[in-house]
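Cross-posted from the bioinformatics board.
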Amino acid sequence: MEHQSPEPLATLLALASAGDEDAWRRLVELYLPRVLAVVRSQCHDPELAEEIAQSTFCTVVQKLPGYTEVGRFESWLMRIAMNRLRDEMRRRKRHAMPAEEHTLVALAEDATQGPRVSDEGLGRGVDGDAIMAAMEGLSEADREVLVLRHVSGLSFKQLSEVLDAPVGTLLARHHRALKKLKGLLSDPSKEEGL
Amino acid sequence: MRRGEQPTNFEHLSDDLAALDSRVGEALRERLLRDASPMVVERIVAASRGSMATPRSQMFGPRFRAAAALLTVAGLAVGAWFAARTTPHLTPSPAPRSLAINFEYELGVASAEEAILVAILDGDGAWIDHVSFDRPGALEAEPVVRTRGTNVDDLAHEITLILGTTS
């Protein structure tokens, strides 16, 4: 995952851990989109995703002065976000809170506030919306790997730290998810160029 | 997996799966990733402000610096006072005069050599009249001591230097 900022990440982290609010704001700007996208893709609730993102960053800033693992900030941040998400989902299940009828497709449609690349950019005639709809047919674990892999930008090694699972397991899950997705997208009545 | 089949290398995707993987990534990023809303960013920064470390500029403000300066000056003053009390003096203090008097009273009659030394160190020449110079060495020193019974401060300093510091 590349750090897209003129300031080195280590500099921002050092300033923020020393109480520099501007540096902290810059870190939030950089990483909030990815945290929101990952959490939103799992809970399918934009408001809940914002709450969890806020809780995540509050935890991060509190632990920042003691953070010493240089080079692993992204996976550390995502791990905290995923733990917060799981805690909240477990709490909602325990309290039998009514499930919102949000899907990944509806979420994607709702998120189209800004400019989007047209589906032509996807190439080979595979509709982006069709991909999003087909992903609803995947298991939660398979969908999680695909989303984290592409939205968070983490490597499989970093993902293994976030999800606390061996790299081999995640690779197998990724492979299985793509194979199933291919099956869901294929239509025997059409000549698909997959 | 059947006998003879190669185990699947999940790290390397076939061409069709690699192409699908790429399209999945594009679709997800285009639909889920959005620039951070400034309002949401400010809300998060405000919520996390209480958990942030105190900036050094606020920690070491004017009041703290003034207090630190006062403490430093006070500490230096106390240190200097202790140093002054314990520094040994090379010049004789009035203590030898007092010691001479105490010496006389404690021992009654000092030896001739001790009496000579005290008489030299003590500027009061009258003291020497109470000393007995009946020993040969003392007899030889008597005239010198009598003539030098007064104004012995300079001599006392030299003798102290010869004898070394007593403290």
